[in-house]
Amino acid sequence: MSAIEAGEIIAPPRTFNPWVVAPVVAMAAFMEVLDTTIVNVSLPHIAGNMSTSIDQSTWVLTSYLVANAIVLPLNGFMAALLGRKRYFLLCMTVFTASSLMCGMAPTFGTLLMFRVLQGLGGGGLQPGAQAILRDIFPLKKIGTAMAVYGIVVVVAPVLGPVLGGWITDSFSWRWCFLINVPIGIVSVFLLSILLNEPHDQRRIKLRETGFDYMGLSLLVIGLGALQIMLDRGEDADWFASPFIRVLAAIAVLALISAFIWEWYQEHPIVNLRMLEERNFGLATAGMFLFGGILYSSTTLLPLMVQTLMGYDARLAGLVLAPGGAVVFLLMPLVGFLVPRVQTRWLICIGVSGNVVALMLMAGLNLQADFMSLAICRAVQGIGLAFLFVPFNTAAFGFIPKRNLSDASGIINLARNVGGSIGISCAVAFVKSSSQVHQTYLVANVNPMNRAYQTGIAGLKIALMHAGISASSALHKAQAIMYNSLRQHAGMMAYVTAFEYLAALFLLVIPVALLLRTPRFHDEPLPVD
Q1: pLDDT for position 447
Q2: Same domain, 76 and 17
Q3: Cα radius of gyration (the chain)
Q4: Sign of dihedral through CA atoms 181, 184, 190, 196?
Q5: How far apart, in whole angstroms, are the C-alpha atoms of residue 98 and residue 119?
Q6: Are residues 312 and 337 in the same domain?
Q7: What is the mean pLDDT of the chain?
Q8: Please, what sign has the CA dihedral across residues 255, 260, 264, 265?
Q9: d(Cα 19, Cα 2) in Å, to the nearest integer?
Q10: Do 223 and 200 share a structural domain?
Q11: Could you report the per-residue pLDDT of 202-252, keeping only the tens digit for each?
C-alpha cells in the first residue's frame, strides 16, 4: 500500500511525441548533473578571486552536494504535493535563478548561500527527469527512456571538468554558473508548454495526511552529516578528527532512526516500503554498488595522471572523454536490446566490460601514453552502457506509474550516496596504500644498496655534465631518486585500487541474476 494515498484524479494529459519532450527534459537534468563537476577545476580561481583559501573553497562543492542529497529522496512527496509538472518547473526555475546569483555573488558567503539554493533546486531535476521519461515512453520502450537518461547521468560528469576548465581559462569561473541561465530560461518556457500532469499521478492533501516533520528532520540531519563527512573527511584526516567522528555518529544515528521511522510511519515523506518490491530493492542495491565503483574509478584515473604523470586538468578531463563518447554511442543500441534480451545477461556483459577495463587500468605504469589511458576508458564506457540502462529498466519495470517519482528519488539517492562513499574510500585507500608501498621501497634506498649507489652515481655524473657543482649534483640526484620512489609507490597504490574495484564489481553479478525481466507491453501495471 502506498504511503500517501490520493483522492484527486487529474484530467488525461494532451499527447506529445516523446521525442519532442525527451530532449528538453534531458537537457534540464543534464545541466544539473553537469554542475556537480563543472566547478571542480575552478576552485583555485574562486579562492583567489574571493580572497579565501583553497581548503575553504571546497565548500562550494560540499554545499551543493549536501543540498542535493537532502532533496533527492523527497521527490515523490513533493511531486505528489505540487504535481510533477509544477514541481519540476519550480526546481528548474530555482536552479536557473540561483545559478545567476552564484555567477554574480560579490562575496564567498553569498556564493555558498546561493550554491545551497542551487543544490536544493537541482535536487529535484534528476529524479524528476527520470520519472517523466519513464512516463512519456510506453512500457515496451522503457529501455529507450532509460538510455536517454543514462546519457545525461554518465556523460555530464565527464564533460564537466573539461568544459569548466575551458570556460575558466577562456572567460571567468563565474561563467560556469552563468551558462545555465539562458539554457534554463528556454527549458522552463518549453517545459511549461510540453509537459502535462499524469492523469494517474499520486496526489496528497496535507490537511488530510499531515506532514512528516520527524522523518524530514532525521533525513536532513543524517544525509547532511553523511555528505559533509564524506566530502571533508580526507582533508581532516578522517577519524583522527573529532569533527569527523561527531559527523559519523550523527549520520549513523539519524539515518538508522529515519529508516525505522519512515518504514513504520503511516504517511512517510519517503516511501521506503517500495524496497519490498523485489526488483526495485535489488536494482537499488545494484545501483548503490554501481555508483560507488563508477564514481571512484572516474575520480582515480584523472587524479592519477595529474599527480603522477604531469597532466593538467584539461588533459586529465580529455582522458575521460572516450568513455563518455562510447556511452553516448552505445546507449541507443542497449535501449534497443533491452526488450529483446534478458536484463540480467545485459548486466553481466556490463560487469565484464568494467572488470576488463579496470584490469587494464591495473596494468598501467608511469610510462603509459594518452592512447593507453583512452582505451581503458573506452572499454569501461562499453561496460557502463550495458549496466545503467538494464538496471534502471529492471527497477522501473514493475513500478506503477503513480509511484515513479518516489522510485526515481530513492534510486538516484542510492547511486549518489554510493558514489560519494566510493570516492571517499578510494581516495583514502590510495593515500594510505601509497604510504605503505613507500615504506617498503624506502627500505631499499640506503647507501649499502649497490643498485642505489649506482643510480645516484649515474644521476650525479649526468647533472655535473649539465654544469651543476658536485655537492649540488649529489643533493639533486637524491631528490630525483626520492621523487621517483614516491611516484612508483603512488602508481602501485593506484594499481592495487583498480584491482580491488574490479573484484568488487563482481558482487554486482549475484544481484543481476536475481532480477526478473520486465514484461514489455503497453498494458497498465497493477496499482499495488
Answers
A1: 67
A2: yes
A3: 25
A4: negative
A5: 9
A6: yes
A7: 80
A8: negative
A9: 31
A10: no
A11: 666 666 566 778 888 888 888 888 878 887 787 777 888 888 899 899 989
Residue whose C-alpha is closest to residue 142's, from 519, 527, 508: 519
CATH number at 41 reads 1.20.1250.20
Q: What's the burial of 100, exposed, middle or buried (CB within 10 Å: 0-12/13-18/19+)?
A: middle
H, E, C per residue of 268-305: CCCCHHHHHCHHHHHHHHHHHHHHHHHHHHHHHHHHHH
Give the Cα separation of 310 and 447 in Å (integer): 30
12-38 pLDDT, tens digit each: 555 667 788 888 888 888 888 888 778
pLDDT of 446 reads 66
Does 258 map to a domain?
Answer: yes
Q: What is the pTM of this model?
A: 0.77
Q: Position 280: which residue type?
A: F
**Residue 472, amino acid:** S
Our CA angle for 231, 232, 235, nearest 5°, is 130
**Does a structural domain hold residue 270?**
no
H or E stretch at 82 = helix 75-82
Cell numbers at 110, concatenated:
553569498
Distance (Å, whole) CA 32 – CA 411: 17
What is the torsion angle, in degrees rounded to the nearest 10, for the CA atoms of residue 248, residue 419, residue 433 and residue 314? -130
| CA dihedral sign of residues 255, 258, 264, 267 | negative
Domain hosting residue 435, numbered range: 275-528
In single-letter form, the type of residue at position 171 comes to: F
Please state, in angstroms and rounded to a whole number, the distance separating the CA atoms of residues 314 and 370.
13
Q: 327: helix, coil or strand? A: helix
**Where is 103: in which H helix or E strand?**
helix 84-104
N-term to C-term CA, the chain: 6
- Reduced to 3 DSSP states, what percent helix, strand and coil does the chain have, rounded to the nearest 5? 80, 0, 20
DSSP 108-156: HHHHHHHHHHHHHHHTTHHHHHHHHHHHHS-GGGHHHHHHHHHHHHHHH
- pLDDT tops 70 at residue 146: yes
Q: Look up residue 211 and give its DSSP letter.
A: -
Q: Is residue 2 part of a domain?
A: no
- One domain for residues 394 and 352: yes
pLDDT at 409 > cutoff 90: no
How far apart, in Å, are the Cα atoms of 299 and each of 51, 251, 279, 430, 494? 28, 24, 29, 11, 11
The torsion angle over the Cα atoms of residues 254, 255, 257 and 258, rounded to 10 degrees, is 110
- CA 150 from centroid of its chain's CA atoms: 12
Domains held by the chain: number: 3
